[in-house]
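Support case: user asked for a sample of complex input and structure output to validate their parser. Sending the pair below.
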Amino acid sequence: MLGSLRRSSRVTLQRMEQIRPYTDSRLAGQCVYCGGVPDTGDHVPPRAFLDEPYPENLPKVPCCKACNEGASLDEEYVASLLEVAACGTAQPDELERPKIVRKLRESGALRRRLERCLTASDGQVAVVAEADRVSHVIEKIGRALWAFELGEPTAALTADVWFAAIPALDSEALAKFTLIEASDVFPEVGSRLMFRHLVVNDELYCPAWQDVQPGRFSYAIQLSGGGGTVKMIIRDYLAGRVEFS
Ligand SMILES: [Zn+2]
């Protein structure tokens, strides 16, 4: 599905570069999610969505323990759900990601629960079966990426979350999702997002999706007046979008 999308080059993927921005110090004093005191850090995306060896330069943001730990069960669960949905089966032997294979071998209860999701949704849109958990995970990743790219905590921002299984999108919807339009807002000076932008014919472009790990996680950010949008593709199966205002 997304393999063909990649080949048709509607999505221009760019290997993540290490950028040392000037804005990280603004983030240092607070949890990027709730604004509280940060006592730990969060990898973005959570490592549950990536395979080993993990990419170098994996984004990391400061956060509090409550925000960090409050989402980890949902993250692990959603990662398993997407693997099962993408492979169309909950049989460990037929899955691709080693981490999920191990988990489902260990937990018969989880395997049965995921099987039920698959049956309930005809193998195509299993994510719908656990919409609250998927939404929670996408919002958290979106907030972390926003903070990472713009050097701005997100506690004060309202997030509107949308997601869909990529196989359920028609080609027009998919093209619209993957399109990164020219922006009329310049990113925060010194932020990572500013360094990623290009000016072409007097128009401002964030030229590429950032490919954190091929086939596992990519994201793109687009600014608009008063806010912006974080888009992500997880496991080549889930399209997620968080609109900030
Ligand atoms: Zn927090």
